[in-house]
From TrEMBL:
It comes from Mucilaginibacter paludis DSM 18603. Residues 5-59 form the HTH cro/C1-type domain. PANTHER family: DNA-BIDING PHAGE PROTEIN, TRACRIPTIONAL REGULATORY PROTEIN-RELATED-RELATED. InterPro entries: Cro/C1-type_HTH (IPR001387), Lambda_DNA-bd_dom_sf (IPR010982). GO terms for molecular function: DNA binding. Transmembrane segments: none annotated. Gene3D superfamilies: lambda repressor-like DNA-binding domains (1.10.260.40). Keywords: DNA-binding. This is Transcriptional regulator, XRE family. CDD domains: HTH_XRE.
Length: 66
């Protein structure tokens, strides 16, 4: 699964720590999601999409092998 999390954070000039604080996870979790090493739960994906006021599908993109 690919994601545009880093790009969306940059648009809001938001750090990983700031996003982590808003959605209630660690900075390491945000880092791992951005790097593609961790797939967020549905609840976390919805919280993240709410921060950016985008749909989950606009941030998280399925790849052919998903």
């Amino acid at each position: 699964m690919k994601n545009t999390l880093k790009v969306e954070r940059a648009k809001l000039d938001m750090t990983q720590q700031q996003l982590a604080d808003v959605v209630g996870v660690s900075r390491q979790t945000i880092n791992s999601i951005e790097a593609g090493g961790y797939t967020p739960s549905t609840i976390l994906a919805l919280k993240i999409s709410g921060v950016f006021k985008l749909s989950v599908n606009q941030i998280f993109l399925l790849e052919d092998d998903d």
